[in-house]
Design brief:
The longest helix has about 45 residues, at about 605-650. About 45% of the residues lie in helices and about 15% in strands. The two termini are about 30 Å apart. The chain is elongated, with a radius of gyration of 34 Å. The chain has an eight-stranded mixed beta sheet. It is built from 35 helices and 34 strands. It is an alpha/beta fold and about 900 residues long.
């Protein structure tokens, strides 16, 4: 039996339905569902995603039986419409559109008006009694076919169109007469012949074959691949192809085309949102070439059509129980529906829509939690322009995607990508964007266009990515040749600073001051629901009392990582640390020498030798006093400062656990890195520069990330660990006495062997007991370790004999598992990802196959020794949604992340608990 590759939709019936997105793609499934519902849908057929994958598997050939099935279904479409494909008397024209499972707006190809040639053109003109319309349809088809199917530079056709308008004295495309369009068709054919070496194909069946192949090819086009990487859409899904009877919005003033959303995709407001153009085809709206009318104006222009469309929109939203993205065409006063799919939306809109739909009874709380992509919560935390700030507003446009961003102006996507790679924030300014601009759009902080509406390509993509965007800023005159734009008497050149306020639509000169946003009731409601379903705890990485307060405001249930070394860089504390380090180096060196002398003295018998060694011992004892003072004094002063910091953190986290990591980085990080800075420090400490420089150089390591740091530092310098432990427990005792509930967890970093942990844990427990004895207070505490080396994960059963908790430091665990330096990885990781060596940056998204297996193994082995072992993760991965889902599945107790990613982790953990991570990356 031949495999079914083609599904028909015609005469109110379809072979498919809305649940078949995997096979029919989002667009095809929507067309099938609307057809079955009896809505006005032009008849057509869908070639499945399986056919696309088979096309690639067979080296660019249609799979056996596919084309025959397509022709058979096309015959059914002919019977449904009463028209015939290729018939010069009554021609059937079709559109050929892509349609993947997940929406990829503008990233793949579309061909309209297919089936036209010099003969069918005559029939179309006669049937419509409108030769201008027929020639306009023909020139559009030749242009699209040449650019998309034959791969000819689209600028050649645009240049010819501009020249035709110049000769005719026309301002808009719609001003061109039939004779102008007829000449333009000939010019377009000449471009195709000169560039491809072949004449424009006139056989409609060959046109259709080539167009289907082009859509299949577009699945692996550069912009589609870039978009999939950005959205984490799998490469093996393939695209469906929808071949549908053409309906024409460019047949006069009783015709039009538009795109609309059942709710505002930028804000979530429950109000029809969209735009349309009279006497136009769909690509005119999406491409942003003309600035369209707001959908509300359709009520005045065509009231009956408007009411019918509102009824259809409401019906579809109720049916799908989600905000819908609709495409429609009006042909001579008749409404046709061309698409329905779940609409892309901003993070704030997703939250508002989900919460309000629960209130409307359309969905339940569980669905609402799953409906919002966890990563999109980040958009609610976007900065906003300070309302109190005085700013110079150059112009206003359509506020297409909220948020505010400042950057340097660039005019090409290539330049945006290059400048961003150099670390420069950029604002991409274009007349309109096209799918070819996707890389530059991704690199930009914000996007500004002078044309287009809120459903144009720029707006849709920016909203999907959470980037501020303004479109339709019509007062801006862009001069690409001079790399500048002018607006209301101001000239803005490439490299000038500009601020885009996508929330209000303001284009602001220079860098505008921004403030943190206010989170509304909808956000709080959604988070409350998420916490109800969530089983894994969420903590925050916080190093200061202010960080701790922010973390708690975002719902953190404790601190999973407090990096004590970060406290050392505040104010003039760095000098105290440097004094302590330099004192320790001389002190330890002299202490070793003194110990050697003592040993030799005990063995010496000759009076002369005894006298010599005694003299040397007295000298060393004198010499050691100053380094000891610097070392011990520095530790004592640091103890007081750290104790105060910990008091603030414990107060902020009253009743919640606080995991404090003892000193981790190598000592050289706190010292000057060049001779100039060394001389400055020598003057401050009143020591010889050469002596200081020798001490700095003595700490140099070939590979410091694997060198003398973490627990190794505490073992060689146990006084540092003792000082930090005392600061922690004295702070705990002080605030506990005032009624604050403290739950300190002391974490020893970079352990590779249980004996390392034992040495450090003994110090911590000894100091804890001393402080409790001194203060007469019992302090509940735990001692654990950071699992950040493969050996630690492999020997976790032994380490758990001493450790009461584990926290996986996945930043370093990724480095040591891959053998890749995180600091140096940007030099090649982008190339790896583009060439599919890696699918993701392992420092951004947890490598579940490699690093993840160490996490799983370490957890299982640790709990085999200590069943109640608390296990968490405190690397950057703790706030990345798919990594959070993995942590839930392997049974971690908590994840810890930046305070500003706590909400993301809370939602991702809830989605994982509900058994679905579909909302983590994208919305269908």
């Amino acid at each position: 039996m031949t495999h079914k590759y083609v599904y028909l939709f015609a005469n109110g019936e379809s072979d498919g339905n809305g649940a078949m997105k995997d096979l029919l793609g989002g667009k095809g499934a929507g067309l099938a569902e609307m057809t079955n519902a009896g809505l006005p849908v032009p008849p057509g057929l869908t070639i499945t995603t399986e056919a696309c994958n088979a096309y690639y598997a067979e080296g660019g050939k249609f799979p056996s039986g596919m084309w025959e099935q397509a022709l058979e279904a096309l015959g059914e479409v002919e019977r449904a419409t009463g028209k015939k494909f290729g018939d010069p008397e009554n021609p059937l024209l079709v559109s050929v559109r892509s349609g993947a499972k997940f929406s990829m707006p503008g990233m793949m190809d579309t061909v309209l008006n297919l089936g036209l040639n010099d003969h069918t053109l005559v029939g179309l003109a006669r049937l419509t009694q409108n030769s201008r319309f027929a020639f306009d349809a023909y020139r559009r088809f030749i242009q699209m076919f040449g650019k998309i199917v034959l791969g000819i530079d689209g600028e050649l056709f645009e240049h010819a169109l501009d020249e035709a308008k110049r000769k005719a004295g026309a301002k808009l495309d719609t001003d061109l007469a039939a004779r102008d369009l007829k000449r333009l068709c000939k010019d377009f054919k000449k471009i195709i012949k000169s560039r491809s070496g072949l004449p424009f194909p006139t056989d409609p069946h060959r046109q259709l074959q080539e167009a289907v192949k082009a859509v299949f090819r577009s699945w692996n086009g550069d912009r589609a691949q870039a978009y999939r990487r950005r959205e984490r859409i799998p490469d093996d899904l393939g695209t469906a192809v929808n071949i549908q009877t053409m309906v024409f919005g460019n047949m006069g003033n009783d015709s039009g085309t538009g795109v609309a959303f059942t709710r505002n995709p930028a804000t979530g407001e429950k109000k029809l949102f969209g735009d349309y153009l009279v006497n136009a085809q769909g690509e005119d709206v999406v491409a942003g070439i003309r600035t369209p009318k707001h959908i509300d104006e359709l009520k005045q222009d065509m009231p009956e059509i408007y009411n019918q469309f509102v009824e259809v929109a409401n019906r579809l939203e109720r049916h799908y129980k989600d905000m819908q993205d609709l495409e429609f065409t009006i042909e001579r006063g008749k409404l046709w529906m061309l698409q329905t799919r779940n609409g892309k939306r901003t993070g704030p809109a997703a939250v508002k829509i989900a919460v309000e739909m629960v209130g409307e009874g359309l969905i339940d709380e569980r669905t609402a939690v799953l409906r919002v992509p966890a990563g999109d919560i980040d958009q609610l935390l976007h900065k906003m322009i300070d309302p109190k700030a005085e700013v110079n507003v150059l112009t206003r446009g359509i506020n297409a995607s909220p948020g505010a961003a400042s950057g340097r102006v660039v005019f090409t996507p290539e330049e945006a990508e290059a400048w961003a790679a150099d670390g420069k924030p950029v604002i991409l300014v274009r007349r309109e964007t096209s799918p070819e601009d996707v890389r530059g759009m991704d690199a930009a902080q914000a996007i500004l266009t002078s044309t287009g509406g809120p459903t144009s390509h720029a707006a849709v993509v920016a909203r999907g990515w959470g980037k501020p965007c303004i479109v339709g800023a019509g007062e801006i005159a862009i001069n690409y040749g001079k790399n500048e734009f002018s607006v209301n008497g101001t000239r803005v050149r490439r490299g000038d600073w500009l601020t885009v306020d996508g929330t209000s639509g303001r284009v602001i000169e220079g860098v505008a001051p921004v403030i943190d946003p206010e989170l509304g009731d909808d956000f709080k409601t959604l988070m409350k629901w998420a916490d109800k379903f969530r089983t894994m705890r969420v903590r925050a990485n916080a190093d200061t009392p202010d960080d701790a307060r922010v973390a708690r405001e975002f719902g953190a249930e404790g601190i999973g990582l407090c990096r004590t070394e970060h406290m050392f860089f505040e104010g003039d504390r760095i000098d105290l640390v440097r004094e302590m380090i330099l004192g320790s180096l001389d002190y330890k060196k002299l202490e070793r020498e003194l110990a050697t002398l003592e040993s030799e003295l005990r063995r010496a018998t000759a009076p002369k030798k005894v006298e010599e060694l005694s003299r040397a011992r007295r000298t060393r004892k004198q010499e050691i006093e100053e380094p000891r003072r610097m070392y011990k004094g520095g530790l004592e002063r640091l103890l007081k400062l750290q104790r105060k910091d910990f008091e603030g953190i414990f107060r902020a986290m009253d009743g919640l656990p606080v995991t404090i990591r003892t000193l981790d980085p190598p000592l050289h990080e706190f010292l000057p890195h060049d001779e100039i800075e060394t001389r400055k420090l020598a003057r401050k400490f009143k020591v010889k520069p050469q002596h200081l420089w020798e001490r700095v150089q003595s700490l140099h390591e070939a590979n410091p990330m694997l060198g003398h740091r973490g627990c190794r530092l505490g073992i060689v310098f146990p006084e540092i660990t003792e000082m930090q432990a005392r600061a922690i427990f004295e702070a705990a005792a002080r605030v506990q006495k005032k009624g604050v509930k403290v739950l300190p967890e002391i974490m020893i970093p970079l352990v590779s062997d249980v004996n390392e942990l034992k040495l450090q844990a003994d110090i911590v427990r000894r100091v804890a007991q001393e402080v409790m004895d001194e203060t007469k207070q019992k302090i509940e505490y735990m001692v654990g370790t950071m699992i950040e080396l493969p050996r630690a994960a492999l020997t976790a059963d032994k380490i758990a004999q001493v450790a009461e908790f584990f926290s996986f430091g996945t930043n370093d665990l990724t480095q040591t598992t891959y053998g890749i330096s995180r600091d140096d990885s940007p030099k090649f990781l982008l190339n790896y990802i583009e060439n599919r060596v890696f699918t993701e940056d392992p420092f951004q998204v947890l490598d579940q196959e490699g690093v993840g297996q160490l996490v799983k193994m370490g957890t299982e082995r640790g709990r085999a020794t200590r069943p109640d072992l608390k296990v968490g993760i405190c690397g950057e991965h703790g706030g990345e949604p798919s990594s959070v889902g993995f942590c839930h599945r392997v049974g971690l107790s908590y994840v810890s992340c930046s305070p500003y990613r706590v909400a993301i982790a809370r939602l991702a953990a809830a989605q994982a608990a509900l058994g679905s991570e579909q909302s983590i990356s994208h919305t269908a």
